[in-house]
Structures are given as C-alpha cells and as structure tokens.
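Z., the sequence and structure:
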Amino acid sequence: MAQIEQEFTNSSNKVSVSIQKSSFSEKETFFGRVSRNTVNIDNMISSICEKVPSYDKYELKRFAKDLKAEIKSSIANGKSVNLLDLGILYIALSGGMKVAPKTASEVSSLTVKFSPSKSLTESVSKIEIDKIVYVSTAPLISNVECLWDEAEEGSVFAGKIVRITGNRLKIEGESGGAFFCPLDANMEPVMDESKWIKASVTHNLPKTVELYAPETLEKDANYAVCIKTRPNSENVYSLGFSDIVTVA
C-alpha cells in the first residue's frame, strides 16, 4: 500500500486514441489504443475521504489490504470472485492446445481473467474521445554513424562498420535489409530498388542496426541509407530513409 497517492491526472472524462495500421490483416484494417490514466486504491480512498470527511482514510486502507488478500486467497483456492458487482474474476486456461490433452501436465497453464458486468461496461458510455493520433509503423532512422576512427559526422567509409539508431528498425523477411540508395537530381532517394546497394548486417535490433558499408560505394558520392523492415500480409515492406551520407 506504500504508493504515491497522486500518480494520475484528475482530469475530465476524455481520452485520446492512437490509430495504427495493421501489418497482418488481409485487408486494410486499423486498430486503436486508448490512452490510460491509471488510478490506484490509494487515489480512490483519498477521493472518497474528500467526499465523506467522516471516513478514516487509514482504516479504509487497512480494509483494502485485507480485501486484496482475501480475493487472492479465493482465487488460489479455485474460486471465482464477484468483484463488488463490477464483474467476475475467474480462472481460465492461458491458451489453446495443439492436441487433445490426456494428462493434467498437457493442459495449458492457468491464468486469471475478468468479465465486466453490464453496469461497468455502460459506465464508459459518456467518455469522450477528444484526440485521435495516427501512429506510423515505418522505421525511423535518427542517426547514421560510421565507427571508423577517421570518419567525420555525416560520412561513411566503404567496408567499415556503420551504426544506425532509431526506432522500429529490426529487419525481417526475405526481401528485408539495409541498403545504400543513390540520389536523384533533387537529392531524394532513387526508388528503383534495382539501383540500391545492399549492405551486410551484423547486428539487427529494434533500435540499433549495424552493418558493413558496401565496398562498391562510390567515393565522394551521396547516398541515403534505407532500412527495409518486415512485410505486411500483402508482402509490402515498410521503408525508412536516413539523411544524406557521403562516402569518404
């Protein structure tokens, strides 16, 4: 129970929703996540005591602690719990099984789930969505750094290790990879992939990719580094491009 009492924002009944395109649906579909403004038991007890000053805050906290222990004990004893008429906490299997189990050890592990009551579900009907944010799933390259000692900022050496940092960089799929893309007359990456020069990747992580700059890069030429990550259901890959780098 020793928690910071005010770790949430006591705001109006409004939420924001972030929208993201699904990478795995056969059709173009989107899914959303609702913002969370989490309130804990200490927050709620403080709010109750502000409304009813005659209540003893510390007595309520002791009761809440005992109630939590009793709920856990009931679940541990194989019971479902009606949680203040807000819904049912119940024991369920954590997942499906590939074959019909013949012994208890072959059954999926147990977990706890919650089924909300009608009144709890209806309580969200007056919440307003005040902001919709569209979230990009494309890789984001924030920095390209050649690890060769003589390399200056914004330059790379052919055959040397280059570190790329950013977000959503992990490469997957047969056609994924890291590429050096020549630039057109407007200093924009050429989108003809047959002209891209693929690099050999040595480290492949969501926020860091390391590679060898290809030996075939033209000296003093400008390129944009492209990270081509995993494909969606239509085998279309997400692309992220860096700022211009020069081959030293």
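The first strand starts at residue 14 and ends at 21. Helices lie at 41-51, 57-76, 118-122.

Let me know what you think.
H.
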